[in-house]
Amino acid sequence: MRTVLITGATSGFGKAMAEKFAANNFNVIITGRRADRLNELKAQLTSTYKIQVHTLEFDVRDRAAVFSAIEQLPPAFKKIDILINNAGLALGRDYFEDANIDDWETMLDTNVKGVMYVTKAVIPGMIERKEGHIINMGSIAGKEVYEKGNGYCSSKYALDALSQSMRVDLLRHKIKVTGIHPGAAETEFSMVRFKGNADAADKIYEGYKPLSAGDVADVVFFAASLPAHVCINDLVLTCLAQANSFYLHR
Ligand code: NDP
Ligand code: 8X3
Known about the structure:
Layout lengths: L2 E4 L5 H12 L3 E6 L2 H14 L4 E5 L5 H9 L10 E4 L15 H29 L2 E6 L12 H21 L4 E8 L2 E2 L2 H5 L4 H7 L6 E2 H12 L9 E4 L13
Parallel strand pairs: 1-2, 1-4, 2-3, 4-5, 5-6, 6-9, 7-8
Helix pairs in contact: 1-8, 3-4, 4-5
This protein binds NADPH dihydro-nicotinamide-adenine-dinucleotide phosphate (NDP) and 2-hydroxyethylsulfonic acid.
The site of NADPH dihydro-nicotinamide-adenine-dinucleotide phosphate has 27 residues, from helix 1 and helix 6.
């Protein structure tokens, strides 16, 4: 059986991806900071599907914790076929001069350095086997900068550069690298971005049908299911109402 490691599986895309891969006979390693949610998801997946689930509780910003968690994986989970770097967040939506510097640092540390740490910890096995697939969850915010997107857009542009760079460097090891860039999708993303302000979060999804976490999981699974010699390098997906970062028909 193949194994997928999904970061940020306590909510949104990561949780939907864990369900999708489990339903398709993958063993899954799910990570996040909220242990209660990881345990709940593990119980749900193991009772529904005939697969194995392992949980890892760590903050992707904590370099030592990332390496220690991956090193201590039980033998049955050590061979990771697919790594999905999904854990990430936006914090705040303010003009540059009003934006909070701590928020910028959290976004860059999580969305960029977190991906570097997790990938660095996971790739030795892929390199040894000359096989593996790394899927990085970018965003349309990493393709077109929008007003008040400063810190988040910077982090997702950096992640896009990282995906491209990994693809070039890991080519000789036969490791696929895919960047997936969703537009607006209704998850806990906006509640996190607006720091619990439900009105502000709800407004983001008003007047149109956004992507769901399941929609995104389906596309990620498709990218992960192609023949060994085929790689989707870069993929932008939006709901029908959204053309890009600027044009949203409500
Ligand atoms: P959610 O807020 O629903 O989920 C985010 C996940 O990331 C949670 O499981 C959270 O787990 C985890 N996470 C956040 N920070 C950390 C951290 N420091 N360490 C470990 N895990 C962390 O958002 P989405 O599912 O929507 O977002 C998933 C990814 O998709 C993100 O990278 C986001 O930027 C990106 N994206 C989202 C879009 C959207 O419109 N929703 C569109 C395009 C891209 P926990 O809190 O338990 O640690
Ligand atoms: C999330 C999509 O448009 O809010 O990455 O930046 S957007």
